[in-house]
Amino acid sequence: MDCKKKTNLSFCTCTYESCSRKGICCECIEYHRRSNEVPGCLFSKAGERSYDRSVSNFIRDQQKNK
Ligand code: SF4
């Protein structure tokens, strides 16, 4: 199976442009999961821009944007 990085980049909402994992979703998830974090694409626009990928910030972000 080929990597779908090019397609993934077309809808990736993470604004950390210099990240080497951007568009490589399997690496992105693995990286953040290892740190008990959540990938940027699951946050709201404002939540993503905080660059705080912690689970607690994710829950706060979800509650704010119900
Ligand atoms: S969410 Fe994290 S790992 Fe994924 S592209 Fe953004 S900064 Fe990189």
Task: Give an overview in words.
It is a single chain. 45% of the residues lie in helices and 0% in strands. It contains 4 helices and no strands. It has a domain at 37-66. It is mainly α and 66 residues long. Iron/sulfur cluster binds next to helix 2.
Gap between N and C termini: 37 Å
Mean pLDDT: 97
Label the structural class. Answer: mainly alpha
Query: What's the story with the biggest beta sheet?
Result: none
Distinct ligands: iron/sulfur cluster
Please report which band the strand proportion falls in: under 5%, 5-15%, 15-25%, 25-35%, 35-45% or over 45%.
under 5%
Q: What is the strand and helix layout of this fold?
A:
Layout: H1 5-9, H2 25-34, H3 45-49, H4 55-64
Bound molecules: iron/sulfur cluster.
Short description:
With 66 residues, this protein is mainly α. The chain has helices spanning 5-9, 25-34, 45-49, 55-64. The radius of gyration is 12 Å and the shape is globular.
Short key terms for the protein model shown above:
mainly alpha, binds iron/sulfur cluster, 66 residues
